[in-house]
Amino acid sequence: MSEPTGRTIVLDGEEVPFERGETLFEVAERHRKEIPTLCYDDRLDAFGGCRLCVVELEGARNPVASCTTKAEPGMRVTTKSGKLEMHRRVLLEMVVSENREVVVDELSGYASQEMKTLVDRYDAQTGRFAGKQSGVSHPDDPNPFILRDYDNCISCYRCVRVCAEQEGDYAISIMNRGFDTQITTEFGGLLKDSSCTFCGQCVQTCPTGALGDLKALRFAEVEKPVEKTRSVCPYCGVGCAVDIMTKGDQVVGIQPAMDGPANEGALCVKGQFAFDFVHHPDRLKTPFVRDDHGQLVPASWDEALDKAANGLLEAVNEHGRHSLYAVASGRAPNEAGYTLQKLVRAGLGTSYIDNCSRA
User: Fold this and answer.
1) pLDDT digits (tens, 9 = 90+) for 182-225
2) Phi-psi category of 62—alpha, beta or left, where left has phi over 0 and alpha has psi -120 to 50?
3) Of 3.10.20.740, 1.10.1240.10, 3.30.1360.180, 3.40.50.2300, which CATH number belongs to 8-80?
């Protein structure tokens, strides 16, 4: 084994570089080391609660949490050994012995399968330490978006932290200590009476399905595979990337794209939950134009576009170019806004154009 030089550590017998401020977990992840964790979300400050990410550090009396231990020159770190694997398996068995169930539907949320994946990986027994459960669920919470099934909570606090650190809402918090620890809202009330904006971030970061997407779970009994299609949220011009979940030709849910450049895993309540319009029976499926009697009748796209173009030109010819005023949609991307202002200024000869999102 070589001696480390400069800003490097020895990771599983290999000398590797690291950046100032990096944790052992970040260094290991960058070098494709599989270190399990349940309380970690790379968008949040490291918490070190689940202890699954422990590694052996030469000179340390006990294994250390890699997510909270900063890398220092000369460290010798082991990420996988028989002792560590036994330690992780026992920790998992302690966690899952309290939970009502390990297998939850993937529609619950983006991270909902993390615990099940680790239980399968370590072949952890789910009833070895069975005893009293500490979770208190809220099946009677009338909100239409978020399932609060705290019988599956493992107190990783990812939901609490994402609400505070990412959203700044502080809608959910922790009460009591030890075995009586509970995830709750202020005064133990309903979500709709708290400062919750129903952005769904708590749902998407939960690794056990204790917080679930109620709208998506409506389709849990549909026996078709879930497919995901990357798209862009249609509700404003920010351009949040989303993964549209479908079963067959039915949209069943929306998940934020964690690698979306504009949103990085965040969505608002509309982007997260307002997708029912896609299959709504009143949704228009063809353009309509007014006939000679002023009645709206179905038309082809060419007919509708020709009708609109002729109407604009007639207004300019009869009332002058300043009789027109265009408002670009805040739901459209920048490219569409640019195209509209080009049409208005170059095509119609007026600068009377605005954007509804500016107001």
Assistant:
1) 899 988 889 999 999 999 999 999 999 999 999 999 999 999 99
2) beta
3) 3.10.20.740
